Amino acid sequence: MQVATEAKTIRVRGGTRLYGRVAIGGAKNAALPAMAAALLTDEECLLDNVPVLEDTLVMVELLRWLGADVEFDQENRRVRICAANINRFDAPPELVERMRASFLVSGPLLSRFGEASSSPPGGCRLGTRPVDVDLRGFRRMGAEVTHTDGGYVMRARRLYGAELYMDYPSHTGTENLLMAATLARGTTTIVNASSEPEISFLGSILRDMGARITGVGTPHIRVHGVDRLRGYRAAILPDRIEAGTFAIAAAITDGEVILDNVSEPDMLPLTYKLREAGAEVWWNQTSMLVRGRGELHSTEIQALPFPGFPTDLQAAFAVLMTQAKGQSRIFERVFNDRLRYAAELAKLGADITVIDKQQAIINGPTRLRGADVEALDIRSGACLVLAGLVAEGETRIGQIQHLRRGYEDIVEKFASLGAEISYL
Ligand SMILES: CC(=O)N[C@H]1[C@@H](OP(=O)(O)OP(=O)(O)OC[C@H]2O[C@@H](n3ccc(=O)[nH]c3=O)[C@H](O)[C@@H]2O)O[C@H](CO)[C@@H](O)[C@@H]1O
Ligand SMILES: C=C(OP(=O)(O)O)C(=O)O
C-alpha cells in the first residue's frame, strides 16, 4: 500500500490569489493514537475519516506486524482493526524510525499483554525528542523497563494505577500513559498532562471502549482501570494543522478560501493571530472563511502547548510574517531546533534571522523570488509550498516525501483553489 505519487519535487509558480473551497481531512495526529488504541481490545474497531498518508499506512503495517487484522479502505477513508490475535510485541525498527507515533503501540501492548519493545521512535528532526516521560510513567505503574542496544524492553505482569507527574506535558507521552492506564489495576492520575485537542479525541474513543476517564483536555487526568475494553467506532476529528496551512495560504495570497470540516475551538490560537495580522476570519458552524485584505501587519507568535500557538504551524506562519509590514518575532518554545527551515526560506529572499535556535526575527514585507529549496520535515515542507505561492517565478521544493507523511493531496487541493502547482 502506498500514497499515490512517487514524485520527489513540487513545482509552484507564485502570484495567484487563492479562491474557492477546500475540504479539510482527518487529523494525522488523532488518527495514529486512535489506531494504536485498537490494540487495547480483542473486539473490532472502526475508524472513519482517516487520512491517506504515509504515516497512517506505516501504522497499518505496524499493527499488522504485531498480528492485528487491518483493512484500510482508502477510497472511503475507513480503517477496520481487529487486534484479537496479537502474536508479537516488538515494534520493528524499520517502521519505528519512520514516525514518532510508532511508540504509541507501547502503552497498549504493555497494558494488555504485559510486554512491549521498541527502538527510539523517529519522526521529524526538531531537536531533542526523548520518550522519558512515557518510560518513567510505565515504571511508576510497575513495569520493568530495560535499555538495550536496540532500544527499550518493557515488561509488567500487570500495570498498577499510580500518580504520574509529567515534567513536560508531552503530547504522545500523555497518549501512551492514558492508554496504558485504562487497563491498569486501580487509579492513575496524570498531572501536567497535555491538553491538545487530539488527546480529548483519544479520551472520547477510550471512553466509548468502556474506559473510566475524567479530565481529558485538562492538565489533570484521572483513570480508573478496568479489566476489559470493547471495540469502538469513531470518525477522526478535522486536521487543525492542515486547516491552518490553507488558512494562512488564503491570507498571504490576498485570497478568499472557505475551509470545510473544521473545528472552531481547535483553531482559536491561529484565528487570533490571523486577525491580529489583518486577515479576515468568519465562521459558519464547521466552515471557516479566510480572506486576505491586502496589507498584513507584523506580529509575534509563541509556539507553546495547546491552547498556545501550535508549533506545527510555526513555520507556515513565518511565511505570513515575510509578507507583513514591520518586524515580526517567533519564539519556538516546544522544540529546541525547529527553525532550521529559515535557511531554506532565506534562499527565496526572506529576511529572517535565527537567534539561539528558538527565536527568529523576520522583517517584511519582502518580495520572495522562486528558487530550489528542500523540505526538511513535514511542516517545513508546507512552509515552503506557502512561500512558493507568493514568490515571483518558479519555486521547486525537493524531498517532498516529508510532506506525504502529513498532507493528503496537498498539490491537488492547492490547484483546486487556483494555484499554479504541480508535481515534477
Ligand atoms: C505524532 C504526533 O502527535 N506528533 C506531535 C506531538 O509530538 P510529540 O508527542 O513528540 O511532542 P512532545 O509533546 O512529546 O514533545 C514536545 C517537547 O517535549 C519534550 N519532551 C517530550 C517527551 C519527553 O519524554 N520528554 C521531553 O522533554 C521534547 O523534547 C519536546 O521539546 O506533539 C508535538 C507538539 O504538539 C507536535 O509538534 C507533533 O506533531
Ligand atoms: C512533528 C510532526 O510529526 P512527528 O511527531 O511524527 O515527527 C508533525 O506532524 O508535524
UniProtKB/TrEMBL annotation:
SUPFAM superfamilies reported for this sequence? EPT/RTPC-like (SSF55205)
Q: What class of enzyme is it?
A: transferase
- EC no. given is 2.5.1.7
Please write the reaction equations for the catalytic activity of this protein.
Answer: phosphoenolpyruvate + UDP-N-acetyl-alpha-D-glucosamine = UDP-N-acetyl-3-O-(1-carboxyvinyl)-alpha-D-glucosamine + phosphate
Query: Catalytic residues per the record?
Result: C124 (proton donor)
Show where the Enolpyruvate transferase domain sits: 12-413
Q: Which GO terms describe its molecular function?
A: UDP-N-acetylglucosamine 1-carboxyvinyltransferase activity
One biological process GO term for this chain?
cell wall organization
Q: Which UniProt keywords apply?
A: Cell cycle, Cell division, Cell shape, Cell wall biogenesis/degradation, Cytoplasm, Peptidoglycan synthesis, Pyruvate, Transferase
Q: Name one Pfam family in it.
A: EPSP_synthase
Q: Please report which protein family the annotation says this sequence is part of.
A: Belongs to the EPSP synthase family. MurA subfamily.
Q: According to its UniProt entry, what is the function of this protein?
A: Cell wall formation. Adds enolpyruvyl to UDP-N-acetylglucosamine.
Protein name listed in UniProt: UDP-N-acetylglucosamine 1-carboxyvinyltransferase
Organism (species): Sphaerobacter thermophilus (strain ATCC 49802 / DSM 20745 / KCCM 41009 / NCIMB 13125 / S 6022)
Gene encoding this chain?
Answer: murA
